[in-house]
Amino acid sequence: MSGLEQTLTIQSIQQALASAGVEIYRTDDQELQIAERIRLHIMDSGVRVVVRDQLAVQFTARTQRSDAPSAHSDELFRRVREEIGEQAGSRGYLESHAEVVEVKDPVDDARVLDVWHEVTYRKSLQAVDDAVTEVRWALDLEKYVRP
Questions:
Q1: Does residue 145 fall inside a structural domain?
Q2: CB 56 within 8 A of CB 123
Q3: Distance between CA 104 and CA 115 in Å, rounded?
Q4: How far is CA 3 from the centre of its chain?
Q5: Distance CA 61, CA 71 (A)
Q6: Is residue 147 part of a domain?
């Protein structure tokens, strides 16, 4: 980490986010998973504040095979990139990675309930205040794309 980032800790970032009214879903040594409220329930939003080599905010956007059963994976990824990638890119986010995720039945691991096509976007930051701003933006972004 550079000199500025060395003073940043997960705890200091968590405190800044909490002071700004942002709820944390889960914390580990290098990452804060941001929560969102769905009615009374608190859930993982797919937004992360990461402190590894540098401070960054990342989020994952997706589409589902069940919405377009005959669509090819390339088409589903393209839809996410068109809908979300352009908005994210205009704010300085870069595509970090893309993956196909099988959503399995919690009772029967052999049964696939759906297949998600996820694209993760990441933006490097210089300050905790920037992280608060970007987390708020990412939370407001509709991250589910219909094909």
A1: no
A2: yes
A3: 9
A4: 27
A5: 18
A6: no
The token pair at 49 is 């504040």
Q: Where does residue 40 rank: exposed (0-12), middle (13-18), buried (19+ CB within 10 A)?
A: exposed
Q: In whole angstroms, give the CA distance from residue 22 to residue 50.
A: 15
**Amino acid identity, residue 43?**
M
pLDDT in tens, 54-109: 899 999 999 999 999 999 999 999 999 999 999 999 999 999 999 999 999 999 99
SS3 40: coil
**CA 147 → CA 35, 64, 91, 117, 121, distances in Å?**
26, 8, 23, 11, 19
26-66 pLDDT tens trace:
999 899 999 998 877 889 999 999 998 889 999 999 999 99
Backbone angles phi, psi at 135, to 5 degrees: -60, -45
Which helix (H) or strand (E) covers residue 88, if one does?
Answer: helix 86-90
Angle at which helix 10-19 crosses helix 128-140, to 10 degrees, equals 60
Number of structural domains, the chain?
Answer: 1
Whether residue 87 is contained in a domain is answered as: yes
